[in-house]
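[Solved] Which block belongs to which protein?

Original post:
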Amino acid sequence: MLEVQKQKRVSPFSSKLFSRLIAFTAAFLVFALLFGSMFQMFESISMQAMLRMNEEFSAQASTISDSMQSIINTLGIQMFYISSTAKLRKSTSLTQNERVFALRELWQYAMSGSMLHSIYVFNPKLDYVYTTDNDYMSASMDGFYDQDAVALYRQRSPENRMRLYHRTFRENGEDYGSEWYSYLVYEVTASGKTGESAVMLNLNADWFHEHLLNFQGENYVIVSSDSYVVASQREELNAMSLSLLGRISEQKRGYLIERLNGKRTICFFSPLDVNDWYCLRYVAYADCLPGLAKIRSYAWIALTLIACALLSALGVALIRVYDPYRRMTAALNRTHEVENVQQAAEQVEKTVTKNMETTVFLLSNALVRGDYSKAYALLDLLMAQREEPYTILAVLSSAYIDMYRVRAAIESGKTSMAPT
């Protein structure tokens, strides 16, 4: 049998399909990466601009907070040193009239505005607590109705002096739901020793709500690092604000993008100058960055469609490769069912897709043997594969030249395998 070295040839359509798929996929990935980088850059620039605007609002809230803190400090020192309070703090021999007169004067201070709820005076010499709250009675420290206040008094230290404590009023362990800010005033010596007597101002939480966010807007929240809401323009934002507090405390200032009621929402946050408070502002992403939001939506749609097209093209390519392989494997698995090797060879030949050089070589063999029906069948196959006639003729001529060389070598006394 003549041995002719055949070079494997890939179908031009399959080769072009795979090369185009690879090039298009690479271009798609490069475009997606560039778009993502550019989008992140523009988003970051826009967010930083919005953050600077939020810090201006935070500065306004911080100024208000400083003013309120100054008012509380001044009032606390005034209440501590006025004569009525001094008598209640230090005296051990007050008459009933003197005590009533002193408490009435403090009560007038407490009722003069919406700021104060009540005033407590701690007398350590008598182990007694006086209160301006008409609903309750002054009593010994152990029998006083507000034991949380007594606990704060007993935890006096230089660091805790004149500091706001947010708490919920409880009587005998029962929560009444009234929010207060307690402000404890006492003396501290140069050596750091705390005085025994003290005055506690109980400030209404509503006073902070009304004054801290007393400007136009509806999405501002002020939270404390101690995990409570100081003031809020919308109660539905409180739960999310507290849930974000951990990350806010780590970053101190910046923004977070979260989902609120199913919508992407930006939370800008900045610290205030006092009390470890943070000013938060919530803005819907689409309202804050309408242009970028549209670009983002359109880009996702376009990238999704392109990805689907790539996957479809990849599926077509895999089918064109896998289907012939599957048919060839099935034919090979059926070779044990045929009666002889010739039938197996014919079955494989019908199943396997041959390249152009192999088909032309079989065509030349059919012509030499005079099997013209098979020759025409192979020629029809080449035409169906859209092979150019001059290409067929060139390969066919090459096959005849190879056979002529072999014949000439044999007549010259050489073997058919001898080199030319």
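(Second protein starts here: sequence line, then its structure tokens.)
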Amino acid sequence: MSALEGKSPAISPSPVMHQASLRGTPGPQEQPAKEHLAQEPAATKALGPASPSRIRALMRRLLMLGGILVVIIVCGVLWLRGDRFVVSDNAYVRSAKLMVSTDISGIVKTVEIRQGQAVYENQVLFRLDPVQFQIALRAAQAQLDRVRMEVEASKRDHARIISDMGVQTALVARAKATFDRASALLQRRAGSPATFDQAKYSLDAEQRKLRSLQLQGQVALTRLGGDANAAAERNPLWREAKAKVDEAERQLARTIVRAPFAGVVTAVESLRPGTFLVAQTAALTNTGAVGLVSTRDVWIEANIKETDLAHVKIGNPVKVTVDAYPNRNWHARVESIFPATGSEFSILPAQNASGNWVKVVQRITVRISIGRQPDDPALRAGMSVVVHIDTGHKRTMGDLWRLAGLSHDPFPSLSAWADSRLIP
């Protein structure tokens, strides 16, 4: 009993503790350990879900700021590379074209071309009946020959008058001698007054005849142009007749209508043999005329906005794309810039002084000469094209800082690097 009394007494579980253990509820001794174990998952739970959310929020902020920064950089690069090329689709192919006709009226005899035929320079297009013009030419030539004979007759008449003036001068001298003798005899009372009067009247008549011949000689000399020995070609009457001959020859030559330049003919169906061509209305009504479109003299007219013309100059290189040939480019250059907008040439220009004025961006026509190769496809008048004009203008970082409102460059090294690397 004493040995048992020296040992610690064994504590037997109470019925209450046994029942608590059976129910899964911690007893008085197990509860601190359970609480310690329960605190560890709670801390882990508090730290674990919070870290990914913070990372996601941080990444979201970085992406937002980085995206804005990328957008700013891209916009800045695009702005630096901009303002160099002027692009416009308001451009069209143009070529020399006209309605070929003649300035004389007549009946169409033959048409020697067909619709869409390519013709060369001076090729015959159609002919008029030349009979009436041949008759007019012969009449003019006859008139010229008649004038030539009249000039020769005037020369001979002038020579005759000069000869008659010599004879009349001799008669005046004889009448003057007779008058002097009669006057001397009358003073010596050896002659009669009747003889004196007869001599006086005879002298006066001969002098009048001489003056009349002199006037006739002047008139004949005037008709000869002031020079009796001049050639007939210098005579005004002859030149007038020769001009009529030249006009008749010109009209006869105009009965053959030729192509003024190489090209393709059109509107041929309106011209038929037997059609009476009226010169005054042929080109206006297309009746009696043939359309001709040049295949060599071709250019492009681009209507550029006035706000895009700041850096466009004559000689700028141009890349041209034709809508009909999308996979082919042409190299061209700016040939000229029109001195006025298109509205200035309109029949009814805008009245900007009126009260309902609305500002509209004007367009100025730029003429572009296009370089062509023998194997290039045909460029037809009116085709739509897109032009890319390389003005050669380059923006710099200094322009960007000035656009931002800064008077000086805050980062000169960065600006130099960007101008050399980012700007082509």
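Accepted answer:
You had them paired correctly. Confirming on the second one: Residues 1-50 have pLDDT under 50 and may be disordered.
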